[in-house]
Model the fold of this input.
Amino acid sequence: MYEHLKKQDPAIYKAILAETKRQEEGLELIPSEIAASAAVIEALGSVLTNKYSEGYPGKRYYGGQENIDTIEEIAQERAKKLFGVPHANVQPYSGSPANLAVYVAVCAPGDVVLGQNLPDGGHLTHGWKASATSIFYKTIGYHVKEDGYLDLEEIERLAKKHKPKLIWVGATAYVREFPFEKMAKIADKVGAYLAADIAHIAGLVISGAHKSPAKFAHIITTTTHKTLRGPRGGIIMVTYKGLKKDPELAKKIDQAIFPRLQGGPHDHQTAAIAVALGEAMKPSFKTYGRQVVKNAKALAKSLMVRGVKIVTDGTDNHMILIKCGKGRGVFLQDALDAAGITLNKNTIPKDPSSPFYPSGVRLGTPFITVRGMKEKEMDKLADWIAQVMEEIKDFQFPSDKSKIKPTFIKFRKFVAGNNELKKIKSEVKKLCAKFPLYKDMK
Ligand SMILES: *Cc1c(COP(=O)(O)O)cnc(C)c1O
Done:
């Protein structure tokens, strides 16, 4: 692998090798990450990156499209079949541009849009104040209850009061099944479009481990690089229900992507998406998706047995939110990092602190499941996480702002010199060696 890169650009070559080693020797628990297959990575690294193909199959603005059209049509057909929808656009550069295209397709500037509040688990693009979506549209956030479940009563109340044009369902940090049917009832009552953003759970929907939104939403968006196990990218789908509400909806979505928001599609990415969707059609993908959830449930249980507190006392999907005390998410994230376990700090429902110093961490099982890890390894992992929490239990987040910096200096020093964390890191490395990545790519 990489023979040309090695000769021509040693700095980049070395960094790629070092990153490969980091991914191989540690436990990647960030729930939005996964190891794509070697075939996906080959398609992504192909000469397709050389091509310009603005437009859609059969309707392009450049010549020489016979192979690109084949590739894009295969990707579209596979997406439609897997999700049971009549229309799929596979050109979004990623999940965020896919979501922006939905706004552009169905809203006029200033229209009201309802989405899950970011500190409650929602995504930036669902209308959070730091996102451009809140500049161009009147975005209103809904919340989860104290118990971590969506507050459906509040959602209905907000929908009736503000009459949104578009309602989002889907999130980036939510551990329970999305109530697509109930959200559809609310959207239908007020005449809103319902867009289901299944970025995190697309692979689970395909494998039957999470209910599909196809019967309930008008539009479905997803990323392709999370549980779907493809390259970085996005897909927007229009359902039969969507076409019934608005026969022009598919056309509006396609126009929103090109020419309104994007230029030429990333054809190498489209090919890699097609490959990933091909993999998702195999029976083995169902086994993988179900194991992702089994592993998350096993890990949640093993953590709780060890006294670790988690949001909603369990999970329905691939994700777990650990509650680790006011403002202490960064401590746990950094200490686990030193032990070879990667996850991210995250807010918890009604977080008493802030998104920058949240009171929880978010972790997930997709990456370690594609490596072949099962329930037995989840128990070991829970053990390590509980041990790390014990190691750092004396560090509290200061309520006095001027103490934050000195506290972190002290904490980092403690972590760097802690032998228990070093010991766990070497045990993690040993476990990972038994579950190699990319055996066939070296
Ligand atoms: C990850 C994610 C996105 C955005 O995807 P990017 O590819 O990072 O732009 C959108 N919505 C949800 C719910 C996500 O989890």
Summary: The first helix runs from residue 3 to 8. The pocket of pyridoxal-5'-phosphate is lined by residues 32, 94-96, 99, 123, 125, 170-172, 197, 199-200, 223 (CB under 6 Å). The CA atoms of residues 118 and 128 lie 6 Å apart. The domain at 285-441 is CATH 3.90.1150.10 (Aspartate Aminotransferase, domain 1).
